[in-house]
Design the sequence.
């Protein structure tokens, strides 16, 4: 990792996914979980809604973002897809990983991208501490494994912490992440696939791509579950 990067990207917080699951399990004893889509007292995402998610059509669309060769999403950030992404990202529904990653795998399989490695969009250190996991990394790891591409969670790191993008306007988002990331020199000459959960303004992905370009990456693509 580059010297200037202060926060190494990671899949999980220090204690790992089992600690996240244990923490949610304890919380569930006190407050029974409700489904993030239908509100039924059940699990964080009930079986009925899971089936709905599995049937949700794959709507691949391409987006133009600065410094990226191509960007793909698998559907609009609405209906069961929006609920699933929210539950996966904020509510600890990490067991939605396979269903969500499956959409990414199908979408990437249909592209003619030549890829050397998969890297997740780095999560803010505070968010990693809060949530215990990087949702983009969980997806990226599964995608890379299934497609047989190298997975490199440490390729990108943060050189400074930023404010939470979700709370900012689109202009603020752009300003918030400028120069926030650094890439490992090993990115030189490689074709990289960035993985994220939602594309909103694309500011984070563009800045990640800028960091990779600064290391002379040959190509940068991105895939995300949904577009907001
Ligand atoms: Zn439900």
Sequence:
């Amino acid at each position: 990792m580059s010297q200037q990067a202060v926060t190494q990207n990671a899949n999980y917080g220090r204690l790992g996914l089992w600690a996240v699951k244990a923490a949610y399990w304890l919380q569930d004893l006190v407050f029974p979980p409700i489904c993030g889509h239908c509100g039924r007292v059940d699990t964080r995402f009930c079986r009925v809604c899971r089936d709905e998610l599995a049937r949700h059509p794959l709507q691949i669309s391409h987006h133009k973002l600065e410094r990226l060769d191509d960007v793909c999403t698998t559907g609009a950030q609405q209906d069961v897809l929006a609920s699933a992404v929210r539950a996966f990202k904020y509510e600890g529904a990490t067991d939605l990983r396979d269903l969500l990653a499956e959409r990414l795998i199908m979408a990437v399989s249909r592209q003619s991208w030549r890829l050397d490695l998969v890297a997740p969009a780095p999560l803010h250190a505070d968010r990693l501490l809060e949530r215990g996991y990087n949702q983009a990394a969980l997806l990226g790891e599964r995608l890379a494994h299934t497609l047989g591409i190298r997975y490199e969670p440490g390729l990108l790191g943060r050189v400074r912490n930023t404010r939470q993008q979700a709370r900012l306007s689109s202009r603020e988002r752009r300003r918030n992440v400028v120069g926030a990331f650094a890439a490992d020199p090993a990115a030189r000459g490689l074709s990289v696939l960035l993985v994220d959960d939602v594309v909103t303004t694309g500011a984070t992905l563009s800045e990640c791509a800028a960091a990779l370009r600064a290391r002379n990456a040959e190509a940068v693509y991105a895939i995300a579950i949904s577009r907001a």
